[in-house]
Amino acid sequence: MSLNKAYQFIMVLIFILSFGCNNSKESIKVDKEYMTLNHSKNILDYRITPKDSVDKSGLMFSDQGAWFAFGLHKESNDSIGFSGPFLMTQQNGVWLSTSLISTLIKVNSNFASLKREKGYSYSSHLEQSYSGENISVFEKLVFKNGHTALLQTNIKNTSNKNINLEFLWGHSPILIDGISFSKSGNIIKINSVNTNAKGYLTFPKNSHVQLVDSLQYKAKSSFNLKPNETKETVIALTFIFPEYSWEEEQKQTASIDFDSVLVARKTEKESQLQSIIKNRKPQFKNSKYADVLAKAHLTLQNNWRLAAGELKHEGLFPSYHYKWFNGFWSWDSWKHAVGLSYYDTNLAKNQMRAMFDFQKEDGFIVDCVYRDTTIEAHNYRDTKPPLSAWAITKIYKKDKDVEFVKEFYPKLKKYHEWWYKKRDHDQDGLCEYGSTDGSLIAAKWESGMDNAIRFDDSKILKNEEGAYSLNQESVDLNAYLYAEKLYLSELAMIINKQDDVKIYKNDAEILKTKIQSQFFDTIDGWFYDTNIDGDIFIKGEGSEGWTALWANAATLKQAKAIKEKMINPKKFYTKVPFQTMSADNNRFDPLEGYWRGPNWLDQAYFGVKGLRNYGFNIEADKATIQIIEGAEGILAKGKSIRENYHPLTGEGLNAENFSWSAAHLIMLLTQD
User: What tens digit of pLDDT does each residue of 523-577 get?
Assistant: First the structure.
């Protein structure tokens, strides 16, 4: 492919769904060697024509960690092109334009009337075809990397005569303030006062590109087509941060072949999807579960962001779709990393590094971090539950990278020790959630279960300057710490730190005894938080009650008691089982409660895994099936995976495209 075609990549992004080429029906087929990729076909619905800059009524497609995305227009019109781009480079996500690249086609000096055929989306790319009198048009959009998307347009002369063709490129109005265009040759530069990222729209070299004013460009390209001849153009759209070289990106893009990029992307996605789909548990071999995994994989892909600004490593947003989730959170990151480890250990490792880049000297891990702290500051007021050693161990088991363990082990050890130095108020070996600033709200955030009913009457205790605890010891926190000791002992064994192996195993045995004796109510048959002295239960059955089963910290007798309540339809075995609190509690409120009733798939996974740990596999299988069938849209093509679900109705709640929900669906359906 020529340099010109590479430059045309930019338009690819917006055009991808608009153009057609060859016979559209045959060109939309996915090659036979990419059969697993077919599970991703239209698994998410990207049709949206944004009404304004903050319209989130549809989904957006991105790949390779790009900070921009595109959609497919809902309605066909005389022009062709993609909706967008949707920019995550600024303002927590805004649409730059309804169509930054909109194309009209003239055939023998007359505007062509084109009928849009159905478009298709895959995890690898987008494609769409059009048909008209004497021509067929076919477009594909693929991300070259995290900076540049390429739009290939093929137009075929379907008549028996020569025809003269003209492409007329323009755009819909700019939807946000602070934007200006400038021009250099066949490149339109996109400047914004709201970000240091620069945009570049590169047209074919034989195009005539004109800047009408600082907010309007137009471009055209003319050529002749013989009967049955096909012409290809490629437009490139780049958004790049100053940490990366535009000159180098421009050079690479100019010499790249679109079809080679598409083959590479299809091969990559085929391999990743095979890694998870072929690894399904035997009881979930039905193809519908393969579709769920493809949707989960694509959800994680769309939330993937390259390192930029304050973020020194790539990782995943919780949800690009919700404006306040445009950053990285610590326990989200641990969960994302485990999900990613099933098919991309390199990205999983960088997701871990992204948070540990901010580790304090005393071992503290920040709660959340952002690319642009002028929009929102990092949150150092609290951390999140200690699941990082779990994530590192899971990643290691996939690729056996000893150097990765060596890199992280001292950091994990410091973080583990931090809990006992800063969050054990009475120094009894049982930790509490807390905050660094002494605020009660940040201490609740530290649990990750912000407004759970167990914290309704909590108060703050000062341990030392900069270290505060709640006046209660939490069963889930100490179960996580118990599991972490065992994971740390595994990691220590891998790098031959035998003394640490022994210490962590001994400490784990001591902690397990404390968990079993202090937090389990033999009358209720449930694990509860207690007061700081450990002699009063903080009642209200919640999902923290089965965390000890996930950690293997309960006795078999205790596990059986927990299981009986978990499978009780009046309590936790609802339409979407294993929600955050028992349905018979008078404070159960899924619609308004956030952590007071909705089903969060991480907590549901901990419940299912806890059952499996104690041999309750029949119950675990039934619950997994009911979770997936009961949660609205998980099995349906088009609909996104949600932040949480109403346990009684199955309604999807809060943010769409939620990463840890997707990650835990992978964990639920695949083998460890």
Answer: 999 999 999 999 999 999 999 999 999 999 999 999 999 999 999 999 999 999 9
Distance CA 6, CA 526 (A): 62
Sign of the four-CA dihedral 614, 619, 625, 629? negative
Residue 541 DSSP code: -
214, 241, 184, 261: which is closest to 5 by C-alpha?
261
Long-range CB contacts (within 8 A, 24+) of 23-29: 23/136, 23/156, 24/117, 24/129, 24/130, 24/131, 24/136, 24/138, 25/117, 25/129, 27/127, 27/129, 27/138, 27/154, 28/117, 28/120, 28/127, 28/129, 28/138
Q: Which residues of 377-399 are buried (b: 16+ CB within 10 A; e: fewer)?
A: eebbbbbbbbbbbbbbbbbbebe
Give the containing element (helix H, strand E) for 288.
Answer: helix 287-302
Q: What are the residues facing 469 on neighbouring strands?
A: 434, 461
Nearest to 199 by CA among 250, 151, 233, 143: 250
Placement of tokens 């450990």 in the chain: 534
Q: Give pLDDT tens digits for 328-378.
A: 999 999 999 999 999 999 999 999 999 999 999 999 999 999 999 999 999
- Written as one letter, the residue type at 23 is N
Where residue 363 falls (left for φ over 0; alpha for ψ -120 to 50; beta otherwise) is left
How far, CA to CA in Å, does 233 sit from each of 124, 167, 185? 20, 10, 17
Residue 33 confidence (pLDDT): 82
Nearest Cα to Cα of residue 126 among 151, 148, 94: 151
C-alpha angle with apex 661: 655 to 667, nearest 5 degrees?
175
Rounded to two decimals, the pTM is 0.94
Q: Which of these, 388, 475, 489, lies nearest to 432 by C-alpha position?
A: 475
Strand, coil or helix: what is 32? helix
Rounded CA-CA distance 204/206 in Å is 5
- The CA distance from 147 to 261, in Å, is 14
As a whole number of angstroms, the distance between CA 245 and CA 308 comes to 13
Q: Say if CB 495 and CB 397 are below 8 A apart.
A: no
Q: Measure the CA–CA gap between 592 and 597, rounded to whole angstroms.
A: 9
**Residue 394's pLDDT band (cuts 50, 70, 90):** very high
Check if the beta carbon of residue 165 is closer than 8 Å to that of residue 225. Answer: yes
Q: What is the pLDDT of residues 235-275, one digit of tens each?
A: 999 999 999 999 999 999 998 899 999 999 999 999 999 99
Residue type, 558: Q
